[in-house]
Design a protein that fits this description.
The protein is an alpha+beta fold. The protein is built from 4 helices and 6 strands; from the N terminus they run ααααββββββ. The longest helix is centred in the middle third of the chain and has 67 residues. The radius of gyration is 41 Å and the shape is elongated.
Length: 193
Amino acid sequence: MHSNHHKRIVCGISDVTRDRAYGWRRSVRWYLAGGRVEPHAEHVSEVEKLRAERDALIDRLARMQADFDNARKRAAKEQADFRDYALADAIKTLIPVLDSFDRALKTSAEKSEFHSGVELIHKQLQDALAKIGVQPVSAEGQPFDPRYHEAIEMVDTEDAKDNAVLEELQRGYKLKDRLLRPSMVRVARNSKR
């Protein structure tokens, strides 16, 4: 009894191993015969099950990759929106400083060194804001556009076209395509044009 068990271990072939080897040999014979020998039904069902499992895993992987790409794009967009929002808030705090420069330069008509220094600082601030995408809204002489202009007064006149901006009372600004503040304007009302 002991020696028989020893032979099975030495040979390395158990009943299960022998059945697997026989099934493998049958599959090889079927392959070498060009698939003409019918495989066992249990092998076919197992292969179909494995194919279905593979297809399900491939589909799951494709969906997970798409979800990951969408999440990455959404995170990048949210980060860009947050950066633009934070930048817009910071610029809105600087706009009153630009207004103060404009008023100071309009009231002082003399060309002193102090006036030239204020003009230089005003120009530097405008250039710095222009580099990050801040632009003044063009108003005077333009047709009134409610998206960019806020009408403070309608003025009856025959010297300008109807709905044309006559005067800019306070300059408006936009950051790239986003309006930060509309221009406050006087608008012409001309019933003849």
